[in-house]
Amino acid sequence: MNDEEFFDLSALPDDISLLKGADFFSLVENLLGELYKNILKVQNIDSVFLFLNINNIFEIFDYDPPDLIDLKSKCYLQNPNGDTLLKPGIQRGFECLTKLFRKKFEHVQTQDTTNSDISPHSLTDIIESHPILQSLVRFYQSQNGDQAETQFLSSLINNVTNNLSNYSSKSRYRYNDFIKNFSLCLYVLDGKPAYEFVRQNLPSAIPTLTTMQTMITSNENSIVEGNFRFQQLQKFLQPYHQKFVFAVGDYTGVVRKLNYCAKTNSFIDFASPLLNGTPIPSYFQTDDFDQLQTWFTLTEKANLLNIHRVQPVP
Q1: Are 62 and 151 found together in one domain?
Q2: Domain range enclosing 12
Q3: From the CB of residue 283, how many other CB atoms can be counted at a distance below 10 Å?
Q4: Does residue 255 come out as left (phi exceeding 0), alpha (psi in the -120 to 50 range) or beta?
Q5: Does 224 map to a domain?
Q6: Is 180 exposed, middle or buried (0-12, 13-18, 19+ CB in 10 A)?
Q7: How much helix, strand and coil, in percent to the nearest 5, is found in the chain?
Q8: Predicted TM-score (pTM) of this structure
Q9: pLDDT tens digits for range 271-289
Q10: Do 148 and 242 reside in the same domain of the chain?
Q11: How many CB atoms within 10 Å of residue 48?
Q12: What is the mean pLDDT of the chain?
């Protein structure tokens, strides 16, 4: 039996070079079993790149670390003299996995080369058969040196075509900065229903709702209850060199209820106490249930949501 018969290359994702951490360990476990996964996991070999660049997977067992006694006993045979022998099947399993990964890399590279080798004659036939491509050619031919007005449109077209042609899995779609900024504005200004309507009708054009929420929560400039961002405001105003600003406050009524903010590890929607005229951010932090119950009973819950904005006066 040759090595190719052990596994089917099609069972591996084309983007195995991107697999890392839990995804990589899950792949190894599905192919070889839990024991192989544990051998790699205990050594922090958590990607195909690291795996292929390790000369001896079993070297760590030569030092007999106490934490690995149980794992070593599953990999080695021991004779009455105390000598140990690596089980041939386990060693062979890793050898086959190494060859499998390398063959998959070669297969993907061959496919990429084949897909990119389009003859001029075939390219002409494709363009003539699809009016949309003819329109795109004329569009790009009409572009002059100043492309500011169509820069976003060009980015959108490139982003969509790259995602649809290069990635078979939607989870691997990539988005450039123009698309991310546009998506963020669409999400904030129009809300979830409108955003999802646009996304469903423009496949691969904009990120998923989950991705958008992750982008917002990971942004250092995200809004935190009670936090007046005076330092960020100072940095924002510096390029304008203006002495005057226009400040406005807006509010809306909200249902009195209690929420937990994981980012600040605090309870929000209580009426925050003031310090020097401004609310104390993240004031309601506790791990004590009795303290939370006291706040819930005695502290007033906010019935208004306020936001304050500043804009430089030109």
Answers
A1: no
A2: 3-115
A3: 17
A4: beta
A5: no
A6: middle
A7: 55, 10, 30
A8: 0.43
A9: 888 888 888 888 888 888 8
A10: no
A11: 23
A12: 81
